[in-house]
Input
Amino acid sequence: MADEARPSVTGVKAHRIFLLLKEAIASGALAPGDRLPGELKLAEQHEVSRVTVRRAMEALREAGLVARRPGVGTVVQEQPMASTVTASVSNLLPNMVRMSAASNVRLLEFRYVEATGVVRERLGLKAGERVQRSIRVRLMDDKPFSYLVTHVPERIALQYTEADLARTPLFALLERSGVTVDRATQTISAALAGPETARALELAEGSALIALNRVVFDQTGAGVEHLDALYRPDRYRIQMELTRAGDEAERYWEPLAGEPLAGEPAAAGARASGGG
Amino acid sequence: MADEARPSVTGVKAHRIFLLLKEAIASGALAPGDRLPGELKLAEQHEVSRVTVRRAMEALREAGLVARRPGVGTVVQEQPMASTVTASVSNLLPNMVRMSAASNVRLLEFRYVEATGVVRERLGLKAGERVQRSIRVRLMDDKPFSYLVTHVPERIALQYTEADLARTPLFALLERSGVTVDRATQTISAALAGPETARALELAEGSALIALNRVVFDQTGAGVEHLDALYRPDRYRIQMELTRAGDEAERYWEPLAGEPLAGEPAAAGARASGGG
DNA sequence: ACAAAATGTATTATAGAAAGTACAATCAAA
DNA sequence: TTTGATTGTACTTTCTATAATACATTTTGT
Output
């Protein structure tokens, strides 16, 4: 939603009102074409000054959510679709290959370090073993959408170069290095953008990000890749198709495997949050 | 994890730094025993004054997350096991049933409204059709972890009562209402906690939340449920086991269906799972 | 033409957050 | 013991969000 690399709304009260209105719009409570209450009325309702309401409203306009005209009022605008990368869980690699064609990568870091903490533990490494740590930012149409921190055991990582990593998906590099990928564990969470990641992803500190952790194992059960990924929710979505399986007693959702997604980015609407 | 329903931190910048550090601790990026960077270093990193960093750090101490000692530094404290609900995508319903036993529900809203915007569109309803809108908060050990907004077409929702919804998972109610659930589309994103959700989930405004949207369809392809869920990432995780499938040319990840999860965040039976 | 309602612009005042600086106290390691 | 890194404390200054008020400008409807 409108990059907002610098927080367009200053102050806590103003920001609070901004969020409330933004949510009302995102949820459809205020549909495109609807007129918002006047500044005075909103100031009264929220028990703040008109200046404060004004800041919130101007932020909405900057974000392209509303249009304001003197004498008329503030009306909700029709939203242009934002181009969003959609990842289907059941169809990861083909998507990635497709994506690689249209996307670029910035390699922010590439070095060998000693494995520590969770990384060492989850990859099943011994104390003192070294890993290749890399940080990449992936861009689509020159707009960054993901921040990827990977750790790969040294013995595997030595099979490819820094240049390789800047060009080729890590996945392909692993295969090329003779690794037979077998299974992976993936956890999805959420996180706030810190100073580093905010800069890399070109958004405001404190923005919400999708946090994904994936540990990949080969056929021997040895860990071959540890990924910590952060995604901009307005440019990246994780999508799943589920079907119902099992009999009466024990029904459950079963992810639909290998189903090519219908609409690529196209639909997906520019609405992000849904907070509040 | 010291709920901090009222932000103990004054100021926006200080509060943001507080949230970032808190999250780093919650996620395990900063493990118990680890030393945080010094106040000066943090001030530099975040481009703020030391006073501001200080406010954030003191809030962390108040929250019991860190211990601070002059001459030593600020170290992450051992945390009393936060009970985390882990949802396995491939195993939704059985988990949900298990969970229902150990968890409570607060019903915040239950009313019938006209379907608008995305909800109407995604459920495939005609203009003017009505839906039953409900807001529920799910709790585990009296601690809220999810905020669920559901929309169900009126004709289906009339088959169950408000009391039913406060007791029984919506899923079971749909089945009981004669609906044959067939498939669902699920999208995972991230969002910030707004005023409403922050209060309901007992955390600070501006915290990061997992945002999940699910649209459920019956065998005729008609939409029967629209769920917008927000989860506290420190109390809820979405987990997936993936295996590699396909041949050389077109390999892809395939979610492992029905696989009971192996090693879990350790002890204390604090694991259940499920969705809306 | 006029009035009503809305946004746009300006000014002043206040409180609180943040910056900047300086120095003291505490601990650990060389 | 000395040195360096850390937190604790104190103070002044600058900046900014907010409040309160006033008036101009634009549009719509009577």
User: Anything to note?
Assistant: Residues 155 and 227 of chain B are 17 Å apart (CA to CA). The radius of gyration of chain B is 22 Å. Confidence is low (pLDDT under 50) at residues 1-7, 258-276 of chain B. Residues 38-40, 54, 57, 68-74 of chain B lie near DNA strand D (CB under 10 Å from a C1').
